[in-house]
C-alpha cells in the first residue's frame, strides 16, 4: 500500500475518533512508522507504507493517547525533547514563561545567576534556560523520579548542564537561595473536565492543583521568599483566568507583582514577582 492511500484511510479513522488536525497527524504517524521525517514523506508520495507499524501507531492515537507520547518527542523552544508517559507534554504557552525568565536574567546582569525550576517534568524549561543562558547555574526539581529520569535524558541529549533533584516542593532545597525561581505548576482545578489525551494519559500530579487549582501557588507564596535573594524573581505560569487569583495568593509583604504577560492567544499566562 502506498503512503498516500494509507494516509487517506488514517485521516478518516482519526477524525471519527475525535482527533483534531487529523491530516497532519496522519502524516506524522506515517513518517514515524517509516522512520523518516515529514519533509521526506512529502517528497516521496509513492513510497510504500509500513502498514503493520502504522496500524499500531494509529490504534494508539485512536485511543486518544497524546501524539507526543506516540512519537516520543515534542518540540519546545526550537529543540526536540524526549517525552513519554510520566511527564507533562511541553506546551507552547510555556515558551512565554521561558521568555519572561530570560528577560529577567538579562535585566539582572549577574555573573552567575542561580536558577531553580520547580516541577521540571520533561526538563523543558530548565534545559532551555541553561542552553539559552549558559552562564546561569540551573537546578531543576520534581516530585517524580520518573519525570527526573526523562529530564536527565533531555539534559544529556541536549548537552545542558542542569542539576536534577528529587524534591517534594522545597524539601531538599533547605537553605539555598536563588536569583530566579520558575515554575509551571499543576494548576487545573480537581473537577475540571479535560480532553481524553490529558485526563487519561498525562500524570495527574502534573495537572491538578487542588480544588481551586491554586494549591501550588499558595505553597510558592509561603515558601519561595525564603529561597530568593533580595531582588530575585519568581516567574510562574498560570491557567486561563487565574492571573488575578494567583496574584492575590502569592503577593505578600515579601513579594511584589512586577509583570503579567499574555500568551499568543491573549490570555494572561505568566506572572513575575520580585522579592523585596
Ligand atoms: N515544567 C514542565 C513543563 O512546563 C512540567 C510542568 C508540570 O508537570 N506541571 O512542561
Task: Explain this structure.
With 276 residues, the chain is α/β, with parallel strands linked by helices. It has 12 helices and 9 strands. The strands form 2 sheets. Strands 5-4-3-6-7-9-8 form a 7-stranded mixed β-sheet, with helices on both faces. The chain has a two-stranded antiparallel sheet with strand order 1-2. Helix 7 links the parallel strand 3 and strand 4. Helix 1 runs parallel beside helix 4 and helix 6 packs parallel to helix 7. The chain is elongated, with a radius of gyration of 20 Å. The protein binds glutamine (GLN). The site of glutamine has 13 residues, from helix 7.
> What structural class do helix, strand and pairing data support?
alpha/beta
Q: What share of the residues does DSSP label as strand, in percent?
A: 15-25%
What order do the helices and strands follow?
Answer: HHHHHEEHEHEHEEHHHEHEE
How is the quaternary structure best described? single chain
Major sheet attributes:
7 strands, mixed
Largest beta sheet: what is the strand line-up? 5-4-3-6-7-9-8
Envelope shape: elongated
- Uncertain runs are none
Distinct small-molecule ligands in the complex: glutamine
- DSSP helix fraction: 40-55%
Please state the average pLDDT score.
Answer: 96
End-to-end CA span = 65 Å
Estimated radius of gyration? 20 Å
Number of helices: 12
The tally of strands reads 9
Amino acid at each position: 500500500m502506498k503512503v498516500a492511500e494509507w494516509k487517506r484511510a488514517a485521516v478518516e479513522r482519526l477524525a471519527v475518533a475525535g482527533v483534531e488536525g487529523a491530516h497532519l497527524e496522519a502524516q506524522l504517524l506515517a513518517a514515524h512508522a517509516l522512520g523518516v521525517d515529514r519533509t521526506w514523506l512529502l517528497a516521496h508520495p509513492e513510497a510504500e507504507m509500513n502498514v503493520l507499524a502504522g496500524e499500531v501507531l494509529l490504534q494508539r492515537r485512536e485511543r486518544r493517547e497524546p501524539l507526543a507520547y506516540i512519537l516520543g518527542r515534542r518540540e519546545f523552544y526550537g529543540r526536540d525533547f524526549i517525552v513519554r508517559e510520566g511527564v507533562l507534554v511541553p506546551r507552547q504557552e510555556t515558551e512565554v514563561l521561558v521568555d519572561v525568565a530570560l528577560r529577567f536574567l538579562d535585566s539582572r546582569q549577574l555573573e552567575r545567576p542561580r536558577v531553580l525550576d520547580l516541577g521540571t517534568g520533561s526538563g523543558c524549561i530548565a534545559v532551555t534556560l541553561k542552553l539559552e543562558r549558559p552562564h546561569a547555574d540551573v537546578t531543576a526539581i520534581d516530585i517524580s523520579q520518573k519525570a527526573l529520569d526523562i529530564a536527565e535524558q533531555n539534559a544529556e541529549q541536549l548537552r545542558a548542564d542542569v542539576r536534577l533533584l528529587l524534591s517534594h516542593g522545597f524539601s531538599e532545597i533547605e537553605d539555598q537561595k536563588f536569583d530566579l525561581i520558575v515554575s509551571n505548576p499543576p494548576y487545573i482545578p480537581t473537577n475540571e473536565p479535560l480532553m481524553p489525551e490529558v485526563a487519561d494519559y498525562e500524570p495527574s500530579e502534573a495537572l491538578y492543583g487542588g480544588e481551586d487549582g491554586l494549591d501550588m501557588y499558595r505553597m510558592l507564596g509561603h515558601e519561595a521568599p525564603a529561597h530568593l535573594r533580595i531582588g530575585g524573581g519568581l516567574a510562574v505560569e498560570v491557567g486561563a483566568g487565574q492571573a488575578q487569583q494567583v496574584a492575590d495568593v502569592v503577593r505578600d509583604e515579601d513579594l511584589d507583582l512586577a509583570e503579567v504577560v499574555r500568551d499568543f492567544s491573549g490570555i494572561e499566562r505568566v506572572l513575575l514577582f520580585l522579592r523585596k
